[in-house]
Amino acid sequence: MRGVIFKGDRVLEIQEFADPEPGPDEVVLEMKASGMCGSDLHFYRAPAGQALAAFGMTGDDAGFIGGHEPCGVVAAIGTAVDPRAVRVGDRMMVHHYDGCGFCDLCRTGWPQMCERGNVIYGATAHGGHADYLKVPARTLVPLPDELSFAAGAAISCGTGTAYGALTRLQVNARDTLAVFGQGPVGQAAVQLAAAMGAEVIAVDIAAERVARAKEFGAAHALDSTSVDPVEAIRELTGGKGVTKALDCSGAPPARAAAVKSAAKWGSVAFVGEGSTVTLDVSPDLIRKQLTVVGSYTFSPVGQADCARFIARHGVEADRVFTDRWRLDDAVEAYTAFDKQTGGKAVIEF
Fold it and tell me: Which residue, among 192, 168, 143, has the nearest Cα to 308 in the 3D structure?
């Protein structure tokens, strides 16, 4: 089979591998869609042999197939896999983390927080940028028939992350929600929150993303290079601020603005990774009785719930993909994706 290897220094190779055979508790997926995530660029851009360190992780990152947004069809199952749960031909997403399986965090569905360390498919183990992917059967999450494989790839990372944050915030039709950052996670958050009935205010520094936000369901879209988003949000909400705010950018000014734009008794979630933020604790947190949470991806149960929600509400999750590529075009695909001038991309099979 073919697989994409990140070599570092903006070099990748499509290499040949033996077709995988499942162990007793494993399955092999025939890949149908593998999303390209902004975090993949850490591995693509990092100096050779230093990709994991650049992404804040430890371990040997040499020779692993990239792609942590896999979706496909079950091609083979191991001898110990219960055929009542998984059958050849089933449409499946992959929860791209695995842990020890025994600690409290693993047992409650959070292997990415495993007390003994974890595996990340596409980073510390082979991922989905390949013809086939072998994973433990417990990592599989069913893909509803109503959804495309590309939608499944989106749910397997960015869209699932957005859904996880919105559920942490308990967003509903009574809310006004500000979403800072209109990359793929922010776009998905706008889509999902609008489907939940919230009035959504989208904020970004890129004019093209601001313009596209209304296509995803935003009631209002703000370009924070031309307006003060906090003041604009106060004006839109009659001086009160939003009941909920979500930062998907990781940028310090956006994080601070998310907190400042929240109303009294409001809630704010941080999803965007990296960097720091300085907050004025008394006026912005204590005296507003504000709740601030960090939201880290999603559990397999949350991923399945996200997929069902999208299917029930007719959310076009695969609209976040502006570019679609074939595996043989991976070099060209990542050269284009590295420029970050377009939207999200997906490799389809």
Answer: 143
| Chain center to CA of 254 | 19
The pLDDT, as a whole number, for residue 65 is 97
Q: Is the pLDDT of residue 210 over 90?
A: yes
Strand segments (E) across the chain: 2-8, 11-16, 26-36, 70-77, 91-94, 97-98, 119-120, 132-136, 140-142, 176-180, 199-204, 220-223, 242-247, 262-270, 291-294, 321-325, 344-348
Three-state DSSP class for residue 140: strand
The pLDDT value recorded for residue 57 is 57
Do 2-157+317-348 and 159-294 come out as alike in CATH topology?
no
Q: Where are the domains of the chain?
A: 2-157+317-348, 159-294
Angstrom CA distances, 59 to 43, 117, 290, stand at 13, 11, 38
Plot region of 9 (φ>0 → left; ψ -120 to 50 → alpha; else → beta) = left
For residue 288, what are its two tokens?
């507003």
Q: State the residue for tokens 């999803």.
A: 271
What is the model's pLDDT at position 30? 98
The counts of H helices and E strands in the chain are: 12, 17
Options 2.40.10.10, 3.90.180.10, 3.90.1580.10, 3.10.20.30; CATH for 2-157+317-348 is: 3.90.180.10
Phi, psi of 168 (to 5 degrees): -60, -40
Average pLDDT for the chain: 95
At residue 295, the pLDDT reads 98
Q: How far apart are CA 205 and CA 296, in angstroms?
A: 24
Confidence check: pLDDT of 259 > 80:
yes
Q: How is domain 159-294 classified at the architecture level of CATH?
A: 3-Layer(aba) Sandwich (3.40)
Query: Residue 61's pLDDT is what?
Result: 56
